[in-house]
Structure formats: structure tokens, C-alpha cells
Amino acid sequence: MQQFTRRKAGLQPVFKDGDSRLLSEGIKVRLAIIDVKDQKSVDAAVGQIKSEDGKLDVLINNAGIPGTWPIAPESQSISDIMTVYNTNVFGVIRVTQAFLPLLKLGEEPRIIMVSSGLGSLEWVSDKAHPYSQVAALGYTSSKTALNGVTVAFANSLSEYGISVNAVDPGYTATDFNGHTGYRTVSQAARGIVWLAAEVSQTITAGFFLDGERAPW
Asked: Looking at the record's lineage, which domain of life comes first (predicted)?
């Protein structure tokens, strides 16, 4: 059984317990709360999944907060940037490190980092690209850092057969952006599902958008 660990905004259930739609589709779901900023919370989730399943096949790191924006980089406070990094970068590292023992026991184990096109240095440095106009230093740089974290884990874990990739869901209409995105949640999830269950497990250290390589 594949266990998809999903989180958002630092504190979310892996799955909404008793979700009638998932259950009606024959998908076995259970609730596990993770605060990615709290090591004890992360360890408790690891213990729960170890007890219930004994292994983990897929870890999807989807925690993210935007920080203060729009605001010029020279005006964004260090404390706000640190808050963003604590969830978007350090939280991901914390969760990934904690779940590694279970992933090493998994079947074709995969780690998927939900990044952003705003973390692409090629796109944000292109004055003709709309991403270059986004004034969110904490968020954009945290996603660039996350891409670096992805490659670091991919290189280190290749000997264990664990693939590690980043995915850009695109500008998706969610609470995160006040539903201003032009992509649907289904469109955004498609690329994540592709990495989790469809693409060859041998592919690693990549950054993808809709099944295609995105620029770093």
C-alpha cells in the first residue's frame, strides 16, 4: 500500500479521516497530524505510521506558507523570512529526515517536494517572465532553497534506491493565493500523482511541471 503523506501550511492531517469520497473510491485513509515546525509532532507521526504500516512508500512534502507579500526585498523583515524558512525549508528537512527509516523499508520509495516556479532562478531572473515581478523574497528564495534540498537528498539517497524530485504545481486557485490562480487543484495534483505513482522510480534529482523538466 502506498502511504501519501500530505501537509499544508505547517499543520495539516495526512488525510481527512473518514473522507467519504476517498472511502467510496476504495482508498484506505487514516488521520495523522503533523506540525512540521515541531520535532515531537513529526516523531509522533512517524511512530504512528510505523505502528500501523511498518513502512512508507511515498512522502509528499507539501507544507508551505507565503510570508508577507507583496513587499520589496529591502523591506521584508528578517523575522518574517525566518518564519517562512522554518516551514518551507527546515520543516521539509525535518520531516524527510524523520521518515527516512520507514522510506528505506518501502517499495520503490519516493520523496516529492512540492516546490514552485517562483523558485526557478531562470524564470525569476527573466524580466519578461511574470514571476520576476513577484515581490516575495521569503517565499521565492525558500522555494529555490527547497530545490537545492531536493538535489542534496537525491544525491545522498540514490544508494538506497530512493528517488527525490521537486514538482511545480503551477499557479493554482487555492486559499493560499485567495483563489487567484488560473489552474485547478486537479491540474496541479496531476504532476504530483505522476511523480508518485506513474513515472519510473529511477528518475531522481529533477524539477518538473506537468511531466516536463522545469528550469532550476
From this structure: Bacteria
**Annotated catalytic residue 139:** yes
Q: Please report, for residues 83, 109, 117, 120, the alpha-carbon distance to residue 167 in angstroms, rounded to integers and kept in the order given.
A: 22, 16, 9, 11
Among 27, 32, 25, 26, residue whose Cα is nearest residue 7: 32
Q: Has residue 99 been placed in a domain?
A: yes
In this predicted model, what pLDDT tens digit does every residue of 33-77 receive, in sequence order?
A: 899 999 999 999 999 999 999 999 999 999 999 999 999 999 999
Which one from 143, 160, 171, 182 is the annotated catalytic residue?
Answer: 143
- 71 touches 136 (CB < 8 A): yes
User: If you write DSSP's letter for every residue of 35-91 in order, what string do you get?
Assistant: ETT-HHHHHHHHHHHHHHTS--SEEEE------S-SB-TTTS-HHHHHHHHIIIIIH
Domain count, the chain: 1
Catalytic, out of 8, 28, 139, 160: 139
**pLDDT tens digit sequence for 28-39:** 888 888 999 999
Residue whose C-alpha is closest to residue 6's, from 44, 47, 53, 62: 62
Sequence length of the chain is 216
Residue 171 annotated in active site: no
Residue 22 lies in a domain: no
The three cell numbers of residue 88 are 518551507
